Fold:
Amino acid sequence: MRHRKKTVKLGRTSAHRNELLANLVCALIDNKRIKTTAPKAKAARCLADKMVTLGKKGTLAARRQAIATLKNEKSVKELFDTVAPSFENRTGGYTRIIKLGRRISDGSEMVLLEWSDSMIAPAAAEEVAVEETEAVAE
Structure:
């Protein structure tokens, strides 16, 4: 039984997995949306939500925890200055995953991981999802 075993291993060592997730979250903070595989997005979503929660606290200790986790001061500054304040009235669910279909080369399920509706206009998100789906279908 897998009780209390939350860590998704992704076929990597713990150090490699931590760096991968930190890089995915930094890319999400910088670019507002990223295209990746479904298991990576599900693992990164958990870390991204934790980082937004730290950003909402706004304390020096929270900033230092975020820097220790993400290892990128520029992304942490962006997180604390723009991303976290936009989720001030929200208690959770800061990210969303939009399925795009399977990758042609190896058949991996591709998804679009992005901030939920308070960061970007919903119409723009739908346009991107439609464009990505059409590109995958071709």
